[in-house]
Amino acid sequence: MTIILGPKTALVVVDVQNDFCPGGALPVPEGDTVVPVLNKYIRHFEATGAPIIFTRDWHPPDHLSFKAQGGPWPPHCIRNTEGAKFHPALVIPVDAEIVSKAETRDEAYSFFQGSDLAEKLHKRIRTLFVGGLATDYCVKETVLDALKHKFEVYLLTDACKGVDVKPGDSEKAVQVMVKAGCKPITERQLQKQ
């Protein structure tokens, strides 16, 4: 299967932020290894003029997912901090779109949650290619929401890493996404138009 990119396709890079990479407040094991692979995808999409969207957690200091508020996670990706910045080696094109999520105290693993983004994207995009961090949380929820909103979705299996709170969580997440209708692919399967 060879995928051809075009004007109705978009790349969605999910939460490749310092706090989710080694040395961060909530590191995904080997989370930084997705960066060089994502940069290859970014070059493919840039070459075709297809949109590239970067999502980021942009939490207030009292976000409900934090342990101090009864949530499961340590404080992470607090807006305007070093931890919330994108990984320094990640290529961010000048015309890329940046979508902040979970900006209020409520949780939002998917960048569609609590927004009219699906409606806006449908006006110009039919197919989404999704990769980033973490496979078993924000990537999974973004993919599942995209499918619910009737987008065609490709999961970039070589450009995702998971938290694996329980061993095998990431593998199970991929199975759930594929069963829901997304198509798993790797960078080799892309072809410039």
Task: Explain how this protein is built.
The longest helix is centred in the first third of the chain and has 15 residues, at 34-48. β6 (152-161), α4 and β7 (183-185) form a beta-alpha-beta unit. The chain has helices at residues 34-48, 117-122, 135-148, 169-180, and strands spanning 3-4, 9-14, 52-57, 97-101, 127-133, 152-161, 183-185, 190-191. The chain contains 4 helices and 8 strands. 24% of the residues lie in helices and 21% in strands. α3 runs parallel beside α4 (169-180). The protein has 193 residues and is of the alpha/beta class. It has one domain (3-53, 85-98, 106-191): Isochorismatase-like (Rossmann fold, 3-Layer(aba) Sandwich). The protein has a 6-stranded parallel beta sheet, sandwiched between helices. The chain has a two-stranded parallel ribbon with strand order 1-8. The mean pLDDT is 92.
Can you describe this structure in just a few lines?
With about 190 residues, the protein is an alpha/beta fold.
The string of secondary-structure elements, in order, is: EEHEEHEHEHEE
CATH architecture: 3-Layer(aba) Sandwich
- Distance, first to last CA: 15 Å
What number is the mean pLDDT? 92
**Total count of strands:** 8
- Specify the number of helices: 4
The major β-sheet equals:
6 strands, parallel
